[in-house]
Design goal:
β1, α6 and β2 (133-139) form a beta-alpha-beta unit. This protein folds into two domains: 8-73, Chemotaxis receptor methyltransferase CheR, N-terminal domain (Chemotaxis Receptor Methyltransferase Cher, domain 1, Orthogonal Bundle), CATH 1.10.155; 84-267, 3-Layer(aba) Sandwich (Rossmann fold), CATH 3.40.50. Helix content is 40%, strand content 19%. The protein has 268 residues and is an alpha/beta fold. The protein starts with 7 loop residues before the first helix and ends with a strand.
């Protein structure tokens, strides 16, 4: 099998492309990652160099091979009930103090393959009963959003789900689906997924009481962080909450948020 090597010039072309498109900054250490993830597309088209592939994506429509490149170069690591303290805070400090009857809207703004959005949905359905709520999940990658909409996962990925939630909201696969799990249809129908590029105008997504923006800011430079957080804060209701990842900080990024606990902020 032909082993492809990427030149510095070729790598810089892809690095500039993904930064311009998604605001993601690729360091020099990511050259191996770019090579391994894109080599399969060179083989698919029988191309001899990364430059040929770059020329191809730049001449393709945005939803064609260009979107495939974005899907391959964006990292989508997630799992159910990641960072449990956030879910405890959501339950004890937000859900338990809400007025009954008022619609609750939550945005999983970097939802990847859907584990975060469905984790929130399980908690809301369990705690809020028949009170109205909506969850909107978004990601830049169309590939992972298709997986999120299906709600179909390998059982090795579900360790974080509480046992009572596994029994209530998850269907264990049998036969050809053995070793997998399907999120219950009734829960899936309450979660909406759509492609959103956080660097671009957000469009008519509405306003939210809670926004989860976890473990994504680490991929952006400071100026891009400021722009993205500012746009999301504009979509927060007054008194709404923004959650970020435990390895992230909003220090020096936005003045319209008050820190509540580490990585949880409230709009003034």
């Amino acid at each position: 099998m032909l082993q492809y090597k990427i030149t510095d010039c070729e790598f810089n072309s892809f690095r500039d492309f993904i930064y311009e498109y998604a605001g993601i900054r690729l360091s020099n250490e990511k050259k191996t990652l770019v090579t391994s993830r894109l080599s399969k597309r060179l083989r698919h088209y029988s191309l001899s160099s990364f430059q040929e592939y770059f020329d191809l994506i730049m001449s393709s429509p945005p939803d064609g091979e260009r979107q495939m490149t974005v899907d391959l170069l964006t990292t989508n690591e997630t799992y159910f009930f990641r960072e449990p303290k956030h879910f405890n805070f959501l339950e004890k400090e937000i859900l338990s103090k809400r007025k009954s009857g008022k619609m609750l809207r939550i945005w999983s703004a970097a939802s990847s393959s859907g584990e975060e959005a469905y984790s929130i949905a399980m908690l809301l359905d369990d705690v809020m009963g028949k009170q109205p709520w909506e969850i909107f999940g978004s990601d830049i990658s169309s590939r992972v959003l298709k997986k999120a909409q299906k709600g179909h996962y390998l059982q090795c990925r579900i360790d974080g789900i509480p046992q009572e939630y596994l029994q209530k909201y998850c269907l264990k696969g049998t036969g050809e689906h053995e070793g997998t799990l399907l999120i219950d249809r009734a829960l899936r129908q309450r979660v909406t997924f759509s492609a959103v590029n956080l660097k671009c105008p957000l469009g008519n997504v509405g306003f939210f009481d809670v926004i989860f923006l976890r473990n994504v800011l680490i991929y952006f430079d400071l100026e891009t962080k400021r722009k993205i957080v500012s746009k999301l804060v504009d979509k927060l209701q007054r008194g709404g909450y923004l959650f970020i990842g435990h390895s992230e900080s909003l220090k020096g990024i936005n003045d319209n948020l008050d820190a509540v606990i580490p990585t949880v902020y409230r709009k003034a």
